[in-house]
């Protein structure tokens, strides 16, 4: 896997049939200095520049976390013991996810905005046994656990504990693709707007589907092609599926470096981040794009990018037209239940940039319902 390659598929790589835990461990072993993410040198002054965290540092932190889990989680009679984590929006989310995978455990990532009874409902449905968290949100979690007293609460390890300099005892993932592809790993949940929220379990095969387009024959350019070997800014939180995609899934698969923001995510600060972190692309909400286009430095920062992807809502036509005059613009579509939907990015289409065109390999069909209405199936 060459860091200098700019085209997919990568030589000798079977995209779409790799266990992501093994991919990360291989990157840590064979390319220890390759970049996983980039974070500010000083969170209060992004103009001081960004520093990269390597895949070796990620894997070491995950090994420290896995050892902590081995020593602290209670014994379980269940295959793929499930534990939960919720806390500050920091790197413990991807690190604990990787550690859970190494140990063949499931990690559920609850959204703390749920009502306590819905929170407890999701935990029980996922067969969660232990809840890890921090003092910052402990009261919210303990309120939920009043409705599920059988679930044990524990304080999670600190980031300093996970990124300590001592060499960890390595825990390597050894299951091959055919044996592990359908193993459960990460549990997200539905929003609960149409009833109690439901846990949604993602397997290693579902995660690997993200990179499958890289090796499909005669495939049109998709988002994964634009991520390969590039530095992408993302401000999407990793407690959600899409945030985990941009921070933990895509970087090891296609050599992307995820650029993460400090707590100050104001449009003015994001404009500085794109400059000082040397971003090639940005994944943003339409609201952030609208705010950045409202002042000169923000508009210039977007103009300097090669790519802009947006998700979460439609982007106003006049705003998208401003962006696409200088950079390649594409919408993202997907859902927690099935993951990212396989669409074309159409980088040369300056007119219909706000439409989705599904790849033939996606298996999407539109069935006529009435008049000019069709249902995607």
From TrEMBL:
Keyword Lyase: no
Keywords carried by this UniProt record: Ligase, Phosphopantetheine, Phosphoprotein
Superkingdom assignment: Eukaryota
SUPFAM superfamilies: Acetyl-CoA synthetase-like
Ranges for domain AMP-dependent synthetase/ligase: 48-351
GO molecular function: ligase activity
Signal peptide: none
Originating organism: Penicillium roqueforti (strain FM164)
InterPro entries linked to this entry: Adenylate-forming_Reductase, AMP-binding_CS, AMP-dep_synth/lig_dom, ANL_N_sf
Protein name, UniProt field: AMP-dependent synthetase/ligase
